[in-house]
Write a structure and sequence with these properties.
Elements: E1 2-3, E2 12-15, E3 18-28, E4 36-43, E5 49-54, E6 59-62, E7 66-76, E8 79-84, E9 90-94, H1 99-102, E10 110-116, E11 119-124, E12 128-136, E13 149-154, E14 159-163, E15 171-175, E16 181-185
Antiparallel strand pairs: 1-6, 2-3, 2-6, 3-4, 4-5, 7-8, 7-10, 8-9, 10-11, 12-13, 12-15, 13-14, 15-16
């Protein structure tokens, strides 16, 4: 059991007998009244997101989560297939459970999968990944005075803003937390 003020995104907690993944937490102190902890919780059973307020002194059941390094292999219909890097065991995770992470995952990329009671509950990406630019508008000469950004579609289908000099076929490093361009990779 932990205090509500100690709950962080990525924790798995038990509320009213159900398991939830904490996706957001905010400590709110209104001008009048008592402070509270506002959270967004993703129900692990069906993937629905629900808002929930906790009193800062409230005790919450923090569930033990085992993390394993795994490799994303491929998408198969409505599941993603992952392989344990040590035991070579393969598991399937429903795509609707990992849709946010899927934007940054290519076959054979390494991820950290969290397990609760033997079931996969979440996938953590590295903070930055290298992806290839699939489509980008052509470079317009003379636009060097300001920091001009343009849209580029990456190999996974996500569209991000990149500097004007980036062309299709180049590799770029992307921050998985914000979806922003970091640098060009040679």
């Amino acid at each position: 059991m932990i205090k509500a003020t100690q709950v962080r995104p990525g924790h798995v907690i038990r509320v009213d007998g159900e398991l939830y993944l904490v996706t957001e937490t905010t400590h709110v102190t209104p001008g009048k009244g008592e402070a509270c902890i506002q959270t967004k919780l993703k129900r692990l059973k069906d993937g629905t997101t629900v808002p929930r307020r906790f009193d800062p002194t409230e005790r919450i059941d923090n569930v033990f989560v085992e993390k394993r390094e795994m490799e994303f292999l491929y998408e198969d219909g409505r599941v993603g297939v992952f392989m344990d890097s040590k035991t070579y065991d393969q598991i399937e995770i429903p795509l609707d459970q990992i849709e946010q992470q899927l934007k940054y995952m290519v076959p054979n990329c390494s991820v950290s999968v969290s397990f609760c009671d033997g079931k996969p509950v979440s996938v953590e990406l590295p903070t930055a990944v290298v992806l290839e630019v699939a489509e980008a508008a052509p470079y317009a000469r003379g636009n060097t005075v300001t920091n001009v950004m343009k849209d580029a579609k990456l190999e996974t289908g996500i569209v991000i803003k990149v500097p004007h000099y980036i062309e299709a076929g180049e590799k770029v490093k992307v921050d998985t937390r914000t979806g922003e361009f970091i640098e060009r990779v040679k």
